[in-house]
C-alpha cells in the first residue's frame, strides 16, 4: 500500500531556498533572536504614530502592500512570489506548502479517474454479458420445463392407458 509519505517523494526531493529577502541564510532560531534584539533596540513609538497604520490595516484587510511600503520599502522592491502571496492572503509559508501538497494530491487523484472509469466500463460490460447469459439460460430452462411437462403428460396418459387395459384384461378373465 502506498502511504502519504511515499506519495510525497517528489515534493521532498525538490529543495527551494526561502525567497524571503533579508534572510542571509539564517536559521529560524537566529532569525527569532535577531527579531527579539531588534524589538529591544527599537524605541517605543507614540500612539499618534501607530494610529494611521492601525486604521490602514482595519480599512484594507486584504491588501497589506501599502503597510509594507511604510515599514520596509526595500521588501516591496525585492518581494518574491511566495512573500507577496503570503503577505496579501495572510497565509504563513507552511500553510501555502500544505495547500500546494493538497492541490498536488487532488491532481494525482484526478489522474486516477480515467483508469477508474475504464474499470467501471469493464465491470458494466461484464454485468451486461452476465445478464444476457442469464436471459438465455432462463429461456433454456423455460423450454426444458415445457418439454418435461409434455413428457410427464405423455407418461401419465400412457400409465392411464395401461391401467385401463389391465382392468379390461382382468375383467375378461
UniProtKB/TrEMBL annotation:
Keyword tags? Coiled coil
| Bias type Basic and acidic residues, positions | 26-41
Which superkingdom is the protein from?
Eukaryota
Residue ranges the record marks as coiled coil: 113-168
Region annotation Disordered: residue ranges? 1-50
Q: Does the keyword Coiled coil apply?
A: yes
Protein name listed in UniProt: Uncharacterized protein
Q: Which organism is it from?
A: Strigomonas culicis
Q: What is the lineage of its organism?
A: Eukaryota, Discoba, Euglenozoa, Kinetoplastea, Metakinetoplastina
